[in-house]
Design brief:
The chain is mainly beta. The chain has strands at about 20, 25-30, 40, 45-55, 55-60, 65-70, 75. It is globular and about 40 Å long. About 15% of the residues are buried.
């Protein structure tokens, strides 16, 4: 996991959606550009559900927000 703990999780407890966790504070942008409108500030530990990725950006959703984040400083598998 994020904190280097290990253990077992039964497959019934897993979701099929791909997700990442923010490891440093980040900004959620409207489009995949640093010059795009910022939508929200994401704190360390925030869970983001991946919709799609391109180059260094992923389109994600979290709570009531949907936008783009850079893929640096995140934990999880990006497909």
């Amino acid at each position: 996991d994020l904190k280097n703990n290990s253990g077992w999780i039964h497959v019934s407890q897993l979701k099929k959606s791909n997700s990442i966790i923010v490891t440093n504070d980040k900004i959620l942008f409207k489009r995949p550009s640093n010059f795009s409108k910022p939508l929200a500030r994401l704190a360390i530990g925030r869970l983001l559900i991946i919709k799609k990725c391109q180059k260094d950006w992923c389109n994600v959703t979290t709570d009531n927000y949907t936008g783009w984040v850079k893929t640096n400083n995140v934990w999880g598998l990006i497909k």
